[in-house]
Amino acid sequence: MEHQNPTLKTGEDSGSGVNSKCDTIENVQPALCEKKILQLSLNPSLESIVISSKEKDLLASRESDHDPRNWPAKKKNLILFIIAAAGILAPISSTIFFPALIEVRNDLNTTEVLANGLVAVFILFTGIAPLGWASYSDAYATRRKVYLVSIMLFQITSVICGIANNIWVLMLMRALQACGASAVQSIGAGSISDIFHPHGEFPSISTTTSPLIGPIIGGYLTQYLGWRWIFWFLTIFGGILILIIFFALPETFRKTSPSHSLPQTSPTAPRGRFNPLAPLALLRYPNVSLTLLYVSSVFAIIYVQNTLISKNFTQLYNLRTSDVGLVFLGPSSGYIVGSVIGGKYSDFVFNKSAKKCDGGVGYPEMRLNSTWFAMISLPASYVTYGWMIAHRLGMMFPLIAMFIGGFSCLIVFNSTSTYLVDAFPGRSASAIAVNNFLRSIAAATVSAAAAPLQDALGIGWLYTIMSGLTLIGSGFLVLVYFKGKNWREKLENEGT
Known about the structure:
With 496 residues, the protein is mostly helical.
């Protein structure tokens, strides 16, 4: 049963005199103050307990000191660095495996569809698992425990993947490995919103180095040491992360909720109740569902390309496994540039738009202004890429198209992810978990179907159809930009 927060009764309010020991804040006993608060919370009807103004000031001061948003900048930056490093775990575990698909297929004597299924199942559970992690984190007010437990799961499954001799065992362990690796993708955004204010100092973070280094590492490990060394590398990396988090990462969960969040009737699991499906209730808000439909279409075309790079560049350009890993430099460099520029550009556009509002305070939908160019360049680059490799043009040309596509994707992801956090500041972990869930389902589906679709449609037409879907999806984001503010205000009015 939830207790209402009691109204603190000060000595002046009650008409009684204030104890002389509380005349100065230095003389206030914190333990006694906290005992009074506990008694009032258990029985709000008590009239005999009086909290002096000095005691109230001390409690407010102590609460402010414990608020992660009031921590020193040095401590915040350390936390940001640790979360960014841990955030690499899931994407690098996914991308490091792409160059090894042909070797795994041959070594385990399996089919192309099942080999690509190793990619699909990892992506799928990368999207499903954060629903549970985010719900647990929000319900039991913890981030740190989630990080430690999830990465320990990642460690165990990575070892089993390294010794697996059966495609089905490997696929099961890849699914559990994804569960362990994916927690940071949703909880990390929650940790950042815990320590930074959503307006002004909220940083745009992204783990875009993993698509760059993951395939390169995977390509060279597979060619010179064998594909199993991919998992020994991941085991070592996960072990380092556990040590850093255990010794250097404090609990960041904020005990207070932002006043500008959606009404309390929004889909929130009651504190202390674990409900992994609770974040999915956010999908009934059109701001969320329409935004994620577009993001999912973008994520789908990325994974069509990633899954087929090994096959296409091995067959059409006669590349070795290590060289296939280098092909990923094209989109990955676009991701990195898009991340660096996209975050700053998104903030610039938002601040510029906010200055035109009354009081210079903007609203979250203004951040979507920064996506207009990418909505056009993204499908144009992918359809161009498809027809270029279909006609076997020089490798430089599809690599340029991949760079532009990667750059455009990160412009979209930066703005939409920050929009979800700004629009749902009290439910940031759940909002990002739903984001990962939908886009991972889309990516897993197309990853499993990519090879048969390419065989049936041809390379050029496959990318033409996928690009057309992203163009249609961009219309949903335009609708959110124009209608999103009214939708949120309507929901707030219904909740009051």
